[in-house]
Design goal:
heterodimer, A: mainly alpha, Arc Repressor Mutant, subunit A, 9 helices, B: mainly alpha, Serine Threonine Protein Phosphatase 5, Tetratricopeptide repeat, 2 domains, 72% helix, 0% strand, extended, membrane (chain B), TPR-like_helical_dom_sf (chain B)
C-alpha cells in the first residue's frame, strides 16, 4: 500500500496545499487547534465551541486565499497566519453575541505583529444574502457526480485542465473542456430564478 | 471562436488568470456585447454555487476533524494513568553523568522514532478516518420545538459532532434501520470500526433506502480494521457500478490504497 507522505514543515505543507492536496487541511486544523482554542479562551473570552468554529473558518479562509492566488507565499509561520485570521473571526463573533470585547494591544486591525488583514477574510464574507445562499446551495448537488467533480476541481480547487483529466480519468484535455462546458451550462440553467 | 474557447476566456477572466492585455481586451468586449456580459454573469453565478457548496463541504470535513479531536481527548483522558508523586532519589554524583548520557541517547532515539513515524505512510485506520465524513442528518428534524426525547438528544449530539453521545443514545432506542445507520456513522466517526462493520453489513443486505451507501461504509470499516484487501475488493465492486451513489468516493479511496 503506497500512500503520500505527510509534509513535516510549514513551507512543504504550504506548497503541498497550494499544489492541490486539500486533504491536508484537516491535519493542519488538528495540528494548531488546541493552541488556538486555548489562546482564544484565555485572551478573547471565547467559548471552546466558538473558538473551534472560528478556527475552522480560519483554515477555510487560508485555503481560499491560497487557491485564489491572493496568498502566493508564506511570510510568517502557518500558525501566526491562522491565529491572525482566527482572532478576527472571534472578535466578530463576540461582537455579534454582544459580549464584552477585551482590550487587546493589537486591536487596531492590521497593527502590531498581526500578518493578516480584512482582505484575508473577504472571501469568507461573500455569501451573506440568505435568499441567494438558498438558491446556490441547492444547485450543485442536482448535477451528476462527475459534473460536480469536474466543476469543483476546476473552479474551486483551481486544478488545471490537465490535472482534472488525470484525476478523473478523462481521455484528453479536450474531453474535459467539453464535459466542463456541458456541466456549466446545466448548472447555469439550474440557477435561473423561478419566474 | 468556438464556444469552449469563449468560455475559457471568461473562466480566465473570472479566475484572475491570463495576461493584463487579455483581461483588458475582454473587459472592453464585455462593455460592448450584452450576450458576452450575460455569459460572464451566469458563469460567475455558477462559480458562486460551486464555491458555496464546497465551502460547506470543507466545513463539514473540519467539523468531523473537530469531532475526532474531541473523541480522542475523551479516550486519552479515560486511559491516562493516575499521576503519582514519588520522592526524588538522593543525588549520586558519580553516576549522574552516565545517567545524563544515557538519557540523551534515549531522547535521541525517541526523537528519531518520532520523526520516522511521522513521515511514514498513514495506517489503514488513519486512512479510513481521514476519508470518512459522517452522513448528514436527514432522518430527524427539530421542528417540534423543545424536544427532549432520547432520539432528539442523539441527533442533536450527532449534528454537534458529539458522536460518542449520539451512538450511546441511539443504542438505547428501539432498533430501526435508520437508527442503526446513524449509529454506525457515529461509531465510524469515533474510529470504532469493529462495532460499525456488522451494522453496515446488515444494512447493506437489507431493503433500507441507504443500503447501497452502507456497502461503502462497510468497506471503510473493513479498511479501519486493517483488512485492506477486503476493503479494496468491496470498493472495487462499488467502483464497477456506474449508478452507485458513492462510486466517486469509492474510486477516490481506492486511489489512495
Amino acid at each position: 500500500m503506497e500512500i503520500k507522505n505527510k509534509p513535516t514543515d510549514d513551507a512543504t505543507l504550504f506548497a503541498a496545499i497550494k499544489a492541490g492536496r486539500h486533504e491536508l487541511l484537516s491535519e493542519l486544523y488538528v495540528a494548531h487547534r488546541a493552541a488556538f482554542v486555548s489562546y482564544a479562551q484565555r485572551q478573547l473570552y471565547a467559548t471552546e465551541t466558538d473558538a473551534a468554529d472560528c478556527f475552522q473558518d480560519a483554515v477555510i479562509a487560508f485555503y481560499k486565499n491560497v487557491k485564489s492566488g491572493r496568498m502566493t507565499e508564506l511570510t510568517c509561520t502557518m500558525r501566526t497566519y491562522l491565529f491572525g485570521i482566527g482572532r478576527r473571526l472571534v472578535y466578530r463573533r463576540n461582537k455579534l453575541r454582544m459580549r464584552e470585547v477585551p482590550t487587546d494591544p493589537d486591536e487596531g486591525i492590521g497593527l502590531g505583529n498581526d500578518p493578516t488583514t480584512d482582505h484575508d477574510l473577504s472571501l469568507l464574507n461573500r455569501f451573506e444574502d440568505d435568499h441567494r445562499k438558498a438558491l446556490l446551495a441547492k444547485a450543485l448537488p442536482l448535477l451528476g457526480k462527475k459534473c460536480q467533480q469536474v466543476l469543483t476541481l476546476f473552479y474551486y480547487h483551481r486544478y488545471p485542465i490537465e490535472s482534472v483529466q488525470e484525476s478523473l480519468g478523462f481521455s484528453s484535455p479536450g474531453a474535459v473542456r467539453i464535459k466542463k462546458m456541458r456541466c456549466l451550462d446545466k448548472l447555469k440553467k439550474l440557477l435561473v430564478p423561478p419566474v | 471562436m468556438s464556444s469552449e474557447d469563449q468560455q475559457e476566456r471568461i473562466d480566465n477572466y473570472l479566475l484572475g488568470l491570463g495576461s493584463p492585455e487579455e483581461r483588458l481586451e475582454l473587459a472592453e468586449e464585455i462593455s460592448q456585447n450584452s450576450d458576452l456580459k450575460t455569459q460572464l454573469v451566469d458563469t460567475q453565478s455558477a462559480m458562486d454555487a460551486v464555491e458555496f457548496f464546497e465551502d460547506d463541504q470543507l466545513k463539514q470535513r473540519l467539523r468531523a476533524a473537530e469531532a475526532r479531536f474531541q473523541s480522542d481527548r475523551v479516550t486519552d483522558g479515560a486511559n491516562a494513568p493516575e499521576a503519582k508523586v514519588r520522592p526524588l532519589p538522593p543525588r549520586r554524583n558519580s553516576t549522574s553523568r552516565w545517567l545524563a548520557i544515557a538519557a540523551s541517547v534515549l531522547l535521541l532515539l525517541a526523537a528519531g522514532w518520532f520523526i520516522f513515524e511521522y513521515n511514514s505512510p498513514q495506517s489503514p485506520a488513519q486512512l479510513a478516518q481521514a476519508n470518512f465524513t459522517p452522513y448528514e442528518n436527514i432522518a430527524f428534524d427539530f421542528v417540534r420545538g423543545a424536544d427532549d426525547s432520547i432520539e432528539a438528544d442523539a441527533f442533536r449530539a450527532y449534528e454537534r459532532g458529539n458522536y460518542a453521545r449520539a451512538a450511546d443514545n441511539l443504542a438505547l432506542l428501539p432498533a430501526s434501520a435508520q437508527r442503526s445507520f446513524y449509529r454506525g456513522q457515529a461509531l465510524l466517526a469515533q474510529g470504532k470500526f469493529a462495532e460499525a462493520e456488522p451494522i453496515f453489513l446488515e444494512l447493506s443486505q437489507s431493503t433500507f433506502g441507504l443500503n447501497r451507501h452502507s456497502e461503502y461504509y462497510r468497506a471503510v470499516a473493513q479498511l479501519g480494521l486493517g483488512n485492506v484487501e477486503r476493503a479494496e475488493a468491496m470498493l472495487g465492486a462499488i467502483d464497477e457500478q456506474p449508478d452507485h451513489p458513492l462510486r466517486a468516493e469509492a474510486e477516490n479511496l481506492l486511489g489512495k490504497l
